[in-house]
Amino acid sequence: MNTPLIRPELVTSPEGPFLAAAELTQRESRATASHSHARGQLMGALSGLVSVGVNRQHWVVPAIHAIWIPPHCEHSVRSHGPFSGWSVFIAEQRCAELPGEPRAIRTTSLLRAAVRRAASWDGTQLDTQRSRIAEVILDELAASQAESLGLPAPEDARLLRITDALVRDLSDSRRLEQWAEWAGLSPRTLSRKFSAETGLSFAQWRAQARLLRALELVADGVSVTTIALELGYDNVSAFIDMFRRATGTTPGRYGTAEPGLTGDGRDE
């Protein structure tokens, strides 16, 4: 059974402070069925990794990222292994200037410090000092850039057969032409419909699926060699190169570098 992340009335009631936050650590995995609420939610992991299902997409949220879920947006949540994370709930009327669509963001030191302070509050109305900290959280979210940590699902049944088969075995390296023959459509139709329904080419979708699975496995402490083999890479170096291009660091260092800092220690 999941421990409530935050007092339910702080999420469901229009009364109370315009921003409420909480942190939670639990040893067992955490899973929450699809639901929605009037408040927007910014969710992040302090350790481990969280998967979020939202708007026909699968989002992966590693410890140095967070996902923004606008008000009334259906979403489900699952952690991989022990969970330590945080959430910020923002009153609907204060979400007008925030992103209108779900997005993954890379957290900054300032955002994480402000959230930690907000998580210590008792849920009463915000005084002047607390309001300033809450406004910092809103400003950081409003200024954030979207990160590519989502995987859109196609609607066509034949494309879904392909994506489902790929997710079950990401080491499958069949070419687009071979997948098209397997699913019973022409390569040209597969290519056109894949781009139209997901916004990604077939190759881009498979690469994104492999990256997101790699993030899950890294968070679970799986060895780099095992991950490379599971994802179908010919060698470990090829996998590490892919991971570095996508995330800016190696699998071994992922999640340990201070987010949002340049080499000279300044915020980007």
Automatic annotation (TrEMBL):
The keyword Metal-binding does not apply. Gene3D superfamilies: Homeodomain-like, Jelly Rolls. Keywords: Activator, DNA-binding, Repressor, Transcription, Transcription regulation. InterPro entries: AraC-bd, Homeodomain-like_sf, HTH_AraC, HTH_AraC-typ_CS, RmlC-like_jellyroll, RmlC_Cupin_sf, Tscrpt_reg_AraC-type_HTH. SMART domains: HTH_ARAC. GO terms for molecular function: DNA-binding transcription factor activity; sequence-specific DNA binding. Pfam families: AraC_binding, HTH_18. PROSITE patterns: HTH_ARAC_FAMILY_1, HTH_ARAC_FAMILY_2. Residues 160-257 form the HTH araC/xylS-type domain. The keyword Iron does not apply. It comes from the Bacteria. This is Transcriptional regulator, AraC family.
